[in-house]
Design a protein that fits this description.
This protein is mainly α. Among the domains are: 52 residues, Serine Threonine Protein Phosphatase 5, Tetratricopeptide repeat, CATH 1.25.40; 86 residues, Tetratricopeptide repeat domain (Serine Threonine Protein Phosphatase 5, Tetratricopeptide repeat). The longest helix is centred in the C-terminal third of the chain and has 16 residues.
Length: 204
């Protein structure tokens, strides 16, 4: 068996342990209360995924109208992106997250949501680039770091990189939901891939 296949298998185990965890960034004031947040649970080890929300065309029309009237307002654009994300229309979500970021380039939550959208379109490199941008805005943003670890492990089979990202989450906020999920993932990595020389010796 090729080493990369082994790594992928271990990554799948780790990813399964954090199934159900919301990898989207936290809700912010940019999101309207009636708008679904751009959050999605990663696929579980069994391959199950959340059911996509139905796209509310009336809300889409309403936010499009606001966006047309207010060309410098990022909020309706982010709201549109959230609607499309929850409907699993990631191409449209990427378009509108991008439009929102043009107007509010320092919005870390929109930036991270854009990265997650890239991940769901099987574009892990673009996702990682976007997370890099987010972390330039806030190097300790735990939701971005947690997502960074997920994409490294599941999208790139980079277990060392995932371990580093999750370790940062635990160090920054060990008692937070993100910290607890990162700790579980790290424990799974250690169990599945123990350090060299750590194996128990046979008894005399």
């Amino acid at each position: 068996m090729k080493s990369e296949s082994i790594a992928f298998g271990i990554a799948g185990v780790v990813f399964g342990l954090i199934a159900g965890w919301i990898i989207g960034s936290q809700q912010t004031a940019i999101r309207q209360p009636s708008t679904p947040s751009a959050q999605a649970a990663p696929a579980s080890a069994s391959g199950s995924t959340p059911t996509a929300a139905l796209l509310d065309e009336n809300k889409v029309k309403a936010f499009l109208s606001v966006a047309d009237r207010e060309p410098s307002n990022p909020k309706p654009r982010a709201a549109l992106a959230n609607l499309y994300f929850d409907a699993e229309r990631y191409d449209d979500a990427i378009k509108w997250y991008g439009e929102a970021l043009k107007l509010a380039p320092d919005d870390i939550n929109v930036s991270t949501d854009l990265g997650i959208s890239f991940f769901y379109l099987n574009q892990p490199d673009r996702a990682l680039d976007q997370f890099t941008h987010s972390l330039k805005l806030d190097p300790k943003h735990t939701k971005t770091l947690l997502n960074l670890g997920i994409v490294r492990a599941y999208g790139k089979q980079d277990l060392a990189g995932a371990e580093q990202a999750w370790g940062q989450v635990v160090q920054i906020a060990p008692d937070s939901p993100e910290g607890q999920q990162a700790k579980r993932a790290l424990d799974a990595l250690k169990s599945a891939h123990p350090p060299a020389g750590s194996a128990a010796r046979p008894g005399a």
